[in-house]
Structures are given as C-alpha cells and as structure tokens.
Amino acid sequence: AQSVTQPDIHITVSEGASLELRCNYSYGATPYLFWYVQSPGQGLQLLLKYFSGDTLVQGIKGFEAEFKRSQSSFNLRKPSVHWSDAAEYFCGCDYKLSFGAGTTVTVRA
Amino acid sequence: DAGVTQSPTHLIKTRGQQVTLRCSPKSGHDTVSWYQQALGQGPQFIFQYYEEEERQRGNFPDRFSGHQFPNYSSELNVNALLLGDSALYLCASSLGQTEQYFGPGTRLTVT
Lengths: 109, 111
Fold this sequence. Notes:
The complex is a heterodimer of chains A (about 110) and B (about 110).
Chain A: E1 4-5, E2 10-14, E3 19-21, E4 24-25, E5 33-38, E6 44-50, E7 56-58, E8 64-68, E9 73-78, E10 87-93, E11 98-99, E12 103-108
Parallel strand pairs in A: 2-12
Antiparallel strand pairs in A: 1-4, 3-9, 5-6, 5-10, 7-8, 8-9, 10-11, 10-12
Chain B: E1 5-7, E2 10-13, E3 19-24, E4 31-37, E5 44-50, E6 53-57, E7 64-68, E8 74-78, E9 87-94, E10 101-102, E11 106-110
Parallel strand pairs in B: 2-11
Antiparallel strand pairs in B: 1-3, 3-8, 4-5, 4-9, 5-6, 7-8, 9-10, 9-11
C-alpha cells in the first residue's frame, strides 16, 4: 500500500493567486514528512519538513505546510504564486522513504 | 560547501549490459540513499547505505546492488539492464535519518 498519496496530478494557478497542494499519508505512527520541489531536469530541493512540535511549518520560497493528524494530511500552501513556482512538487515521508507521485504546477500569467 | 554530486550526468547503455553510477554525499553526511525516477513519476526508493552497510531496501530486484565506501561516497550497480531501467537515478545524502539532500541525478537510457 502506498504510504504517501498526492490526489492532484496537475494544478493550474494564476500568478498572484494562492496555491494549495494536497498530501495524505497512511502510516500508524506519526511520520516525518517532507515537501520537495523539482524543476525540469533537476534533482529535488527540500522546501520544508515536519518532524514534531508545531504543526504549521514554514519553508523556503514562501511556502508553508500544516500537519493534521486527524486527517492524515500534510498540505502545502503558498499565499501568492510567482511564475518561478511552476515545477513538480513531491510529498514524502520517512516510512520506507516513500514519495507521492507528484503534482505538476503550471502558473499562468 | 559542495552539495551532493553524481556522475556521470547522462549515460546510454544497451540491454543486458551493466552500469555503475556514483555519488558523493554532502559534506558531513554519513547516509546515502538511491532512488529511481521514471518519467512522470515520483522517486522510488531503491536502497540506503549507512556505515558501509545496506540499511534499508525498497522493492527492487537483486540486479540492483550498491556499495558505500569509508569516505561515505556510494555506487549503484545495475546488472543485466532492461529497457524499463531507463530513468533518472537520484542520490540523496543525510546525516542519519534527518532530511535528505538530493543530487542532480544521472539520466540512464537503455536501448
């Protein structure tokens, strides 16, 4: 069974609009959770991570994510998207070092 | 401070051949993990090395093997290549089980 699920394959958002990417995990204990971004032909860059403590975590490039145990979710948000945010985003967890299938974000002018 | 480096950048091999990919971890990191990323897919975990031992392994056949050296660098070997092995191979390093830092990857094409 997949440990991490990203329900949205592709999201299109206008520049300046808000963005939310969904991530759900299936794991008994509280996992370590991550969000990575991948630009075309590049490796993965860590945006933010959750290990424990405050459930709202801040990352780089203006991103934040909220861990909700009751919903087994770790959604990524950004209040105002820039054209440079167009990329593929992956949610991952430390359980068997799993990643979701990714969400492609397209930003329209 | 150099990040994670991988070599080569690109590689073309023929079915049945063997290939070795190399990874140097970020300075101060002692753990190396390897991933396979097929086109349009998320990274799939192959295995992880720590203290020169394979610590975890994903659902990959024995054709995929690895090694970690005393300087923490690592190699991924794939034998009897199949067309389906064509992918981007990513190496990630970490200090123990903390967050991973990824290299740019090696693009392997099997013809």
